[in-house]
Every structure is written in C-alpha cells, then in structure tokens.
Amino acid sequence: MLLALIPTILTAVGVVREKELGSITNLYATPATRLDFLLGKQLPYIVIGILNFFSLWILSSVLFGVPVKGSSIAFIAGAILFVMSTTGFGLLISAFTKTQIAALFGAFLFTMINSMTFSGFLQPISSLVSGGKIIALTFPTTYFMNISRGTVTKALGIGDLYINYIMICIFIILFILLSLKFLKNQEK
User: Fold this and answer.
1) Which value, in Å, is the radius of gyration of the alpha carbons in the chain?
2) Is 118 a domain residue?
C-alpha cells in the first residue's frame, strides 16, 4: 500500500506546487513540451518509489522472513512498472487540482479506495460482487498484487504473469496521455 500511496502523493503535490507558486509559467518560455515537463516531474518520484520498494522488500525479508520464492527479476520489474503507473496517476490528479491540499486529498482518497477495496489486498477479488470485480480490473494495483503474490508465494516468473505486466503498461500510457490532455495547454 505504501508503494501505491507515496509516489502518487509526491508526484501530485510536486506538480501542483509548481502551479501554486507560479513557476510553471517559466515552462512557457522554454522549448520544453508538456510531455518533457511531465516526464521530468515524474522521474525523481519513480526513483524514490523504487528505493521505497527495495527498502520494503528488505524489511519484509529481514524482519518477517518472507522470501521471494519466484523470480526476483519478475518482482522488481513489476514494482518498477507499478511505481511508474502510480506516479502517472499522480500526474493525472495534478492535472485536475489547483492546490496542494486538493492534490494530497485526491491522491490519498483515490489510492486508498482502490488499494484497500478493489485490489485484492484485504479480500480476494473473487469474493467481490460482479460490479466490484469489474472495478478491480480498472486499477493497476490489482495487477501488481497479482505479480507480488505470484512471485513471493507461488514461485511464478514473468512468463506466468505477462498479462499483468501488459495491463500495468497500458495504465502507464493511459495516465500519461490523459495527463497531457488535461494539463492546461501552454500558451506561447
């Protein structure tokens, strides 16, 4: 859950802070495109999210003795893609919000609802009613839960979980494209 929440909040608040301070207007004077701006804002939070993942992995291994039975590469690849999707979601939230408080609240609310209720974190997706199952498929957290459970407890690899990786990649692209569309057009 921390891997979903922290990168989303940091990214959303980071971009909105630029809006509040007015420093985003400096972007208009540069040759940078909206995509350059968004990817530039996203990259540091991806690095922070990946460091967060490794620290959580080390803590779970050392403190709780939970080994990864499957492919470590599959687990790491899933985490990197998931962090990219959560930061992309943070960018999307920042495109709609004007204040840091709104960005923080929106990121927290939407991330917590999907992470806790629909991802299979607290209860299996198979136990959700049919509408809940459909909603679960619309969040990248669901697919990362499949990857983490598959690699940690079931000894699965990338080949066994490929559809989950594809779905997270689709979310990454979708979040970036929607962020580009909804970020206020630059006036040059």
Assistant:
1) 17
2) yes
Decide if 188 is inside a domain: no
Query: Can you tell me the distance from the alpha carbon of 1 to that of 48, in angstroms, rounded to the nearest whole number?
Result: 15
Whether residue 81 is contained in a domain is answered as: yes
* Residue 100 counted as domain residue: yes
Please give the residue range of the domain that contains residue 44: 2-182
- At residue 99, φ and ψ (nearest 5 deg) are -125, 155
- Per-position pLDDT tens, the chain of length 188: 778 889 999 999 988 988 888 877 777 778 888 888 889 989 999 999 999 999 999 999 999 999 889 999 999 999 999 999 999 999 999 988 989 999 999 999 988 887 778 877 777 888 888 888 888 888 999 999 999 999 999 999 999 999 999 999 999 999 999 999 988 654 33
Phi/psi at 75 (nearest 5 deg)?
-65, -45
CA–CA dist 124, 144 (Å, integer): 14
| Total count of domains within the chain | 1
Cα distance between residue 118 and residue 131, in whole Å:
10
Contacts of 110 (CB under 8 A, 6+ apart): 89, 93
Q: Residues with Cβ < 8 Å from 125, sequence gap 6 or more? A: 118, 119, 132, 133, 136, 142
